[in-house]
Structure formats: C-alpha cells, structure tokens
Amino acid sequence: MAKVWVFSEVHNGKVDSTALEILTRARELEGAEVEAVALGPGATEAAGPLGEHGAAVVYASDDDVYGDYVAQPATEALYQLIQEHSPELVLFAANYDSRDVAGRLSAKTGSTLMSNVSVIHDLNTVQHAMFGGTTLIDVTLEGSPKLVLVRPKSFEAVPSGGQAEVVKVEVTIGEELKKAERLERHEEATTGPKLEEAPVVISGGRGLQDPGNFELLDQLASSIGNTAVGATRAVVDSGWVPYAMQIGQTGTTVKPNVYLAFGISGATQHIVGMKGAKKIVAVNKDEEAPIFQIADLGIVGDALKILPQLIEEVKSRKG
Amino acid sequence: MNIAVCVKHIPDPNLPGELVGERLKREGVQGVLDPGDEFGVEAGLQLKEAHGGEVTLVSMGPSSALEAVRRGLSMGADKGVLVTDDTLRGADALTTARVLAAAITKAGEFDLVIAGVESTDGYTGTMPSTLAEFLGVPQLTFVKRLEGAEDSIKVDRQTAEGYHIVESPLPALISVTAGVNEPRYASFKGIMAAKKKPVEQWSLADLELSSDDVTVNQSVSNIGKAEERQAGEVVEDDGSGAARIADFLKEAKVI
C-alpha cells in the first residue's frame, strides 16, 4: 500500500469542499492508503467530514499560526510530516492557499508540482490540461513524494461513512517563518445561492459596458430564481464587482445546469472555470467570440438590449 | 528599494496555442511580453518612483525572449537579465523557479521580487511561491492592491470569499493580478532609451547550476485532444433573441 495524502484547507472551522472531492477520488485508487492533513483553527473538527469522505487518518493542528501567517508555517509542518511518514502522492486543491503551500513544498522536496489536473488515473499518472482544457496530456510522475494540484469540481464529493483517526501535529514553527501576516479578513457578502452550488449561473463581462448594468443580471437572477451571478476576471480586475464573483482559472469553478454568459468573449482563463456547465447560453455582439464555440445557444446581439426583454420573457413564462 | 521583476516571453495569446512533440511551440511563433507581467513591471516602477532604487527585469527563455525584456525596459525598468540555455527547453515551474532564484541572487541584493500571478500560456500559478521558497522569503500572492514602505509591504490578497489584508517585512515576493494597476505605455523616448540599457545574458554555467539541477521528474505518456463541446446554434438577434433564450430555459426546466 502507498500513502496518498490530501491537503485540506480549513476556513472558519469549515473544511474546504474541494478536499472532500479529491478524497472521494483518492479512496478509489488501487493500492492507496488515504490520509489527510488539516492545519489551522478548526482542523480537528474538520477530521469529521474528512474521515467521512475516505481519510483513515487526519494529521491535524488547530494552532492559530497556520491561519495567521500565509503559507510558510503550513509548508514547514507539511514538509516535516512528509519526512516522517513518506507519502507517495500528495494532492492539493487548486485554491488560493493550497496553491501557495504546494508551490513552496515543490522547492523544499525537489518534486515537480503537476498543475491543472482534473483526472487522476492511478498513483503515478495524472491528466494535465493545456490551452484551457482543449489538449489533455497524461503525465507519469517519478520520484517521491509526487505533488499534484487538482482543479475544483473535478470529482463529486460523496461520503463513504468512514471515521478518521486524528493524529495531533506538533511542529515548532520558528519566528523566521512568521512573516506574511494576515491582519484583516474581508468577506464580501453576496446574496442568494453560492456560485459553486447554484443550478443556474448568470455571468457578465466587459460587454456590459458599465458596472451599473450588473443590476440587470441581478434582476434576471431573481426572476429565474435559485440563480447566482458571476463575472469575468476582466470585470473584477476593473473593480466593477467584488472578487468573490470571479469565475475562471483564478476564482470560482462552476458546473451549473445552465450557464448564461452576457458580453463575455470567452478568454481561456474564463472558459476553464465554466466549461463543465451542462448547458451554455451566450450573448455577444461579436460573432467571432470564442464563447460561441462552446455555447449550446448563441445569440449575436447586444446584451444590454436583450437583458430587459429576457427578464420580461422569463416573468411571463413563469406566469 | 531594489526590485526584481520576473517577465516571460510568451507566444502571442491571441493566436491558438500549438504543441511541438510534447512541448509548447515557442520558436517561430510571434511572441510578446506576457500581458500579465506588464502589471508586475508597472508595480515595480511605481514603487521605485515612491522609494527610489532600481528595477531589474529577470527572464528565462530562448534568445528571442530578449524582446520581452526590451519591452519592460522601454516601460522604464533599469536593466535586465536573461537566462538562456538549451538544456532549459521544456522546463517546468520547479526548474524555472530554481533558475530565476539563482539569477536573482546573482544579479544583486533585492528588497522585493514581483511576478504575475500566472503566465498566460502555462497558467499553473505556482512558480511565484516556489521561487519565494528558493529565495527563502515570504510570499504575498494574488495581490489586488499594494502599499509599499521602506522596509515592509502591505497588500490586499484575493481569496475565494473576498480579500485579506496581509503585511510582511522585506525582503519578500509578491504576485500581482491585473487589478493592481494600469500599466503605462512605452513612450518613443522609452523605446529608444531601452536599446541602450544593460541586459546580461547568462547560461546555466554562469549561475553555477548543472543540467542535473534542471532535470524534470515527469514524463508524458499520452497527448490527446479533449472531447470538444459541440458548438450549438448561433443566431443573429432579430428581436427574438430574448424569447429564444427564455424558451431554452423552459426546455432546460430551470423556469
């Protein structure tokens, strides 16, 4: 048996959902002995869901140092645990904090870090996506530990009803690793369902021309119901809407039943985060926009003209 | 404040990407300075303007990558370093970070290293934190806003739910998003001045690295095209576009 580890972020005492997705896949791998590592306040509690999704052991520490300082303390603890237990494969969610820890760990261990992975074939072979997922490459990793960053929503999280043994992590973190300190945490409140869970997602890009026009997306969302509103990186970077609304490679990955894109051209960075949608509808003025190549229904037209009409059409159909 | 900015020369992102064997095709392809790196150069220039010091561009790539370094110099950076070596073809993020760390260390003492959050062509987004570990400095990634002082830096770091304010003493590394600033255009004067600015070209041997240091421990077993989503119907809006979408939503049973 080979040890396969899943590194799990813990936020506000809650375990990261991508870690549960990865665990669900990891426990199916032949010859894998699945364990998880959770560091920071709430880690011990996180052992519950991690165990239910397949981790036999959870190495946990509730020490504030892992939440207060970015990446360096977690990297050090994980590195020491790896030295002690020699896992064959360490899987990380491609989320903000894990990406930093995995990157640093790659330098410390000298292991290649394989990114943009959404398929794990076996203990040594993963599928790496290029060009926004149009080209898929099977990569065989050598050496140990193998480090892999898995994209969110690659697998569905399904509990198996297990229970994890909790092993307390006791690592001394030196002062030299307490540098990048989190002073304040700001959560941007969003109303309605969460982007990653909503069955319908409406999203806007530069084509909406003005931040005020996002109001139209909100109106359409409330007329459809149970619908979340997102945006492209370009729009978020311009400060039109909060970061929390960003859909794409950086930002949230969504897999709704229906995705409605308004004024979005379809840059690779955006497509990566939404191409898993069951149905895609796109409205764009430019008939050459790449988004039309993946849309089930494409309307070449002005989003600002169509949106108010669509709100009325939806209302009348719902009676 | 002495600043090193990592820059990458990439195939023009407006052209479709191509593979040669198992590597990204770079030779004979129209190249540009990665648009994401322009924000890093701009951030470096603004910090220099506020605190003095020098901005050094550091890059790795074939000699054609000089073009990207020149472009950053024409924006106003002071000097450049390009690491070129045949053994570096197909280098992964780990190798790239190791080489850039050696180049940055050789180029001088730095207070701050700046990179883009992810390259436009490879988009792994892990190189900056690997580089920070090699340099032994903290990393502040996904920076949306930054405030530099003489001996510290304070940033807004993007998170899934919003942002965190993170502060670190220098030296440190930051990776910047496109939201951090508005990159300046290179003026004609800047372009002319860039031609005279010093650019060092180093090989692996100059960095005291051997080919063993840059061995990649992975191999490609299969390359395939993803099953493509079929493009559906694309129609011109003749006034019935909204009704078409509403019908589609009804059929998909979401209304």
Notes on the structure:
The complex is a heterodimer of chains A (319) and B (255). With 319 residues, chain A is α/β, with parallel strands linked by helices. In chain A, 28% of the residues lie in helices and 29% in strands. Chain A has helices at 17-26, 43-52, 65-68, 72-85, 96-109, 214-224, 233-237, 268-271, 303-318, and strands at residues 2-8, 10-11, 14-15, 32-39, 57-61, 89-93, 113-120, 125-130, 135-141, 146-150, 165-168, 181-187, 200-204, 227-231, 258-262, 279-284, 297-300. Chain A is elongated, with a radius of gyration of 21 Å. Chain B is of the alpha/beta class and 255 residues long. Chain B contains six helices and 15 strands. Chain B has a nine-stranded mixed β-sheet, sandwiched between helices. A two-stranded antiparallel sheet of chain B has the order 2-5. A two-stranded antiparallel ribbon of chain B has the order 3-4. The longest helix of chain B is centred in the N-terminal third of the chain and has 17 residues, at 35-51. The radius of gyration of chain B is 21 Å and the shape is globular. The termini of chain B are far apart. The mean pLDDT of chain B is 91. The chains are: A alpha/beta (319), B alpha/beta (255).
